[in-house]
Design goal:
- The chain is built from 4 helices and 11 strands.
- By secondary structure, the protein is α+β, with helices and mostly antiparallel strands.
- A hairpin with a 3-residue loop joins β10 and β11.
- The protein is globular and about 50 Å long.
Amino acid sequence: MASVGVELPMADRVLVRKSERRLYLMRGADVLRAYRVALGLNPGGHKERSGDFRTPEGSYRLTRRNARSDFFLSIQVSYPNERDVQHARRNGWQPGGSIMIHGLPNDPRHGPAYYATQDWTDGRIGATNAAMDEIWMMTPDNVRIDIERWRPCPPGPRARPLGRVHFSPQTKVKVNEGISWKPASSFRISWTRASDPAAASRTCR
């Protein structure tokens, strides 16, 4: 949890890049925080129906908050929207629902390494408890969430990181893709360096 007495910046948009498995808290063009997240067991493609284990893609809102869920905090995503409902009806499906950003299960069935490395949700967006704590505090009600379309990383050298990371004495980080990173002084979550080969193997645009 963030330090008592430290004022955290508020995000005006949440961005999820499914192919990177990253959630970004944004304010304008600035990235306030970035976290690794887990997706549904079937991560590729947009959620179309109940039980497909996919995470939705598109623009939604973060609506209802639940501090007493089966997970460490949860915030509901406004899936399905009207387009999702109509698409499911045309195909004779139920669109599904209860899509949330949430922390780890209160009653975990696997060890920490599993939750840290696997897609383990039924279509939701899973984060660590420390990340969820900050997401909860740094997002206002009804904030927009953009979930970018899944783009599988191609094999070989085309899979690449976002760019080089440069640290300055003012704790600002600039990425050569044009995004300014401005961590708050209370920032504790580790950033994945774009120069890390493991990150490069997971990241594509």
